[in-house]
Task: structure prediction
Amino acid sequence: MSQATNQSWGGRFSEPTDAFVARFTASVTFDQRLARQDIQGSIAHATMLARVGVLTDDERDAIINGLNEIQGEIERGEFNWSVPLEDVHMNIEARLTEKIGITGKKLHTGRSRNDQVATDIRLFMRDEIDVIEVELKRLREGMIELADREAETIMPGFTHLQTAQPVTFGHHILAWQEMLARDHERLLDCRKRVNVMPLGAAALAGTTYPIDRHVTAELLGFDRPSENSLDAVSDRDFAIEFTSFASILLMHLSRMSEELVLWTSAQFNFIDLPDRFCTGSSIMPQKKNPDVPELVRGKTGRVYGHLMSLLTLMKSQPLAYNKDNQEDKEPLFDAVDTVRDCLKAFADMVPAIEPKKVSMYEAARRGFSTATDLADYLVRKGVAFRDAHEIVGQSVAYGLKTEKDLSEMSLDELKQFSATIEQDVFEVLTLEGSVAARNHIGGTAPNQVRAAAQRAREALSALKAGA
Ligand code: ARG
Result:
């Protein structure tokens, strides 16, 4: 970092900034990440200024060429970021002036760092949302295909983590997919409010120059200019919305992670994860640890933390811009990186999940998972549900004592509990019969799972970024 002094506001000061204060208030160490968007915003601003006659075409061209060169310097790692120049905006402007002389100083006409930074973050968020959306789509597609493949695979369904009723593995994966479908909607909804342009709000009240904000908005791909200059420079609710989306998404991914961790354990033994998503232990040679889902589960905490940071950052801030807002960037950057990486990890991993069908099937058989089917059978034969519940309870107690699943008992054994039980009971006591019977929209029957997968595929392809 060079030691250039910050001259952009030096005019009214009689002594230089304290060295520690300069470091304390600087943001360039982290906001240099906004450089591309800062240059993009400046090019649009200069273009608009020339169109309304505030800059000449030559001045505009000199500015744009200079900025493009600076972009190259940054990309090649040749740019000398300076802490005394405080932030990404003043670093780039100072370099521009160094390169093209006095014209560089005209770029800041009719704008302020306040509307500039608000614009940069929105451009950044829009770019990142689009990248995140690609990963989210890829993950949803992977889940839909896995569900379709495993529409007939039977596993125990749980409540209270106790075996409840048999379900199909495809149905379980489509439950995950539904969570992500709602997260996807939240992301696209958030994008709509991100894509509004603060530029032109200037410091807080607008500017006296004859700017045309529709031109700038169009050049930058924003849906519209913001309505109110005070609001535009100050609020960061779009960042809070994004981290809310991110928190809910990570909450969902952590639930899926937890199940993957359980399922890969020897005790469940429901699935295998390929070695490339796992690591070993340096001391226990037999171990294969599901690190990827564990880490995703763990990263949920930091994203919740960022949401809390941003909510607290904005709380009680009077209008308009306050320096507090400089603290919006690090939580937001980390939330963006974490979400993108977790989605990538999941999108790579989910299609590679290998269900251990025999083991899942055996687990579903062990837990009396068709007990409800027996009760429903009795009700169909005219027994009241409460009585049916009691009869099945006695059958299960008998099964526990004799170590037999309901489907393994003879007709005579079952008849001890109710004379209404006939040979046709065995159709409902099999796992296949049980899942096939739940044959309505939203049910676990294999044909319903295939139909749901098809609907999910169609819903996904109908979604468009920014729509
Ligand atoms: N670095 C600042 C931020 O991130 C830019 C805006 C500063 N504006 C100001 N008047 N100090 O928010």
Q: What stands out?
A: The chain has a mean pLDDT of 95. The longest strand covers residues 162-168. The chain has 19 helices and six strands.
